[in-house]
Design a protein that fits this description.
Elements lengths: L1 H23 L3 H13 L12 H18 L3 H6 L1 H26 L5 H11 L4 H11 L3 H29 L6 H30 L5 H22 L3 H19 L2 H36 L4 H38 L11 H8 L6 H8 L14 H30 L6 H22 L4 H15 L9 H24 L5 H27 L13
Length: about 525
């Protein structure tokens, strides 16, 4: 009961701190990391927690990966596959190797398998941390695609290395002839299984219209996909990623609007709670560790600082080498010695190399290490590895997460407007299609809808440009008047609370739509003049 009360209190504290971070413009993972560190340093003997290592990855990684992969654009990943693949494979391998070498140098008795496992734990930047920070900064679209794709897919490469290293550290002998086929089966089988399950799940749940049941099945399905992959022996990471990407393509056609709205809202809350719980649990596990290392403070602090510095420098080194290599290829191409390759600028290279924030995936893999020491069947140097992993998460979030925004502004690497341009195209074409359909209808109700779409079309024309602030303000005032009338009807008992809640929900959706329309209208450009469907 004490642990439950503590977790509830800390979740409330995390929510309050996150609200504060939003007002000051700081990413919420930074606040959670600081809260976890503060929890580990609390002067009490009663704080402790043990999480089943087999549960840690499934509980924290599966839903976080699905949430990030669901929003991933296969088109954009395909267009930027070379830099994404470079970060997903080579940057991870370089980071794992560098951390392993530094760990062995500082602790010579540490087995290579343990050092490699540590490298795999701290190698992958986190999808949630990267997204929450980058969306506050609004970098160029291509940079956003590359970093989100990296943070999503590098979990797979790092965790494949992690699994082999943990097995070797616990006594399992794996030769290269065994590892390579196992790796191919794990990766390829995971992708194929994820695609199959992503197609099957919507087919099985197509007739489920009850929103709570549908959302519950989504959560249960995510964990079921992970469990099936684990049981078969393929990569659960790649399975969940492929499952989520496939699911996003299929459910766009089959899922109802109500289910989709409820699903997005619930998943946002769930991912936030899981992130908060991960930092809380690491803080609870670090507390007894820090309490018992009174004679090893120097070792733990120095080791953690060295691993943090290695993680940051390894990424900077690889990104700069890779991008400067592209620049060299461009110069060779200019002299007729190769194909022209687009190379990023030096400023963009520095910014990408600085986007290495770690988060819940690193925490979850650290928590998944077996308890005890090597002699007792657990994992050697587990306490040291967990401490170093948390130091890397805290350090990268605070050092890189808080300085990335000023860096991008200093480099003048702002949003290039690519997403806005595509939004304009989508809004124009959807409005045209709706108006063209309504022009073929003869019902009197169709005339009413035509007038509504005519206004929307007018909002996008050059000659009849509607002021976004004015029309947005009028919409909000009209909704406020509706709310006032609704309140009066309830106060004078003309309607009951059931009716009140029904109309209130409709007005909530109308207000959300009005705000979105106002923001979108402010960014819209004019339609092509003279198109048949523009004649209103």
């Amino acid at each position: 009961m004490e642990l439950f009360e503590l977790v509830i209190g800390l979740l409330i504290g995390a929510a309050l701190l996150t609200t504060l971070s939003t007002r000051v413009g700081a990413p919420y993972p930074v606040v959670l990391a600081v809260a976890g560190a503060a929890l580990a340093l609390l002067p009490t003997e009663k704080i402790s927690a043990r999480l089943d290592p087999d549960l840690a990855l499934a509980l924290f990684v599966a839903p976080v990966l699905l949430n990030a992969a669901f929003d991933t654009s296969p088109r954009d990943l395909k267009a930027n596959w070379a830099p994404v693949f470079s970060l997903v494979m080579f940057c991870v391998v370089v980071t794992v190797a560098a951390v392993a070498v530094v760990a062995r140098w500082l602790v010579p008795d540490m087995p290579w398998a343990v050092a490699i496992a540590l490298g795999a734990i701290v190698a992958p930047p986190d999808a949630t941390a990267a997204t929450s920070i980058l969306r506050l900064i609004a970098p160029p679209h291509r940079m956003m695609v590359i970093l989100e794709g990296e943070s999503l897919l590098n979990d797979a490469s790092a965790l494949l290395i992690y699994r082999f290293a943990v097995g070797a550290a616990l006594g399992a002998s794996v030769t290269p002839f065994q590892a390579i086929p196992a790796l191919l089966f794990s990766a390829g089988g995971g992708v194929l299984l994820g695609i199959a399950l992503g197609w099957l799940f919507p087919f099985l749940t197509r007739r489920v219209e009850d929103i709570p049941v549908h959302v519950s099945l989504q959560f249960a399905g995510t964990f079921a996909v992970w469990i099936v992959a684990e049981t078969i022996g393929v990569s659960p990471i790649l399975t969940v990623v492929a499952y989520a990407i496939m699911l996003s393509q299929v459910t766009a056609r089959d899922q109802t609007a109500g289910n989709r709205r409820a699903s997005f809202a619930v998943w946002d809350v769930a991912i936030y709670v899981l992130n908060a719980l991960a930092f809380i649990l690491v803080g609870l596990q670090l507390h007894p560790i820090l309490r018992d290392v009174s004679g090893k403070v120097g070792l733990y602090a120095g080791f953690s600082a060295a691993v943090l510095a290695t993680v940051i420098l390894a990424r900077i080194g690889w990104v700069m080498i890779y991008n400067r290599g592209l620049t060299l290829r461009r110069h060779l191409a200019a002299r007729g010695e190769g194909d022209v390759v687009e190379a990023p600028s030096l400023k963009a290279s520095i910014a990408v190399s600085w986007c290495g924030m770690r988060g819940v995936v690193t925490l979850a893999t650290a928590l998944a290490l077996p308890y005890g020491d090597g002699a007792q069947g657990g994992f050697p140097y587990r306490d040291l590895l967990i401490t170093a992993a948390f130091a890397v998460v805290l350090g990268t979030l605070v050092i890189q997460g808080l300085t990335l925004g000023p860096m991008l502004r200093w480099f003048d690497l702002a949003d290039d407007g690519e997403s806005d341009r595509e939004e304009k195209i989508a809004r124009r074409e959807t409005a045209r299609s709706a108006f063209a359909l309504l022009k073929t209808k003869s019902e009197s109700e169709a005339d009413l809808l035509r007038r509504e779409y005519a206004v929307r079309m007018q909002e996008q024309t050059t000659d009849h440009r509607v002021d976004a602030e004015v029309i947005g303000g009028l919409r909000m005032e009209a909704i406020a008047a509706e709310r006032g009338a609704l309140d009066r009807l309830r106060r004078n008992r003309t309607i009951g609370d059931d009716t009140y809640r029904t109309i209130e929900e409709e007005l909530d959706w109308a207000e959300g739509h009005a705000v979105a329309r106002k923001d979108a209208l402010a960014e819209l450009g004019p339609l092509d003049k003279g198109a048949p469907d523009d004649k209103v």
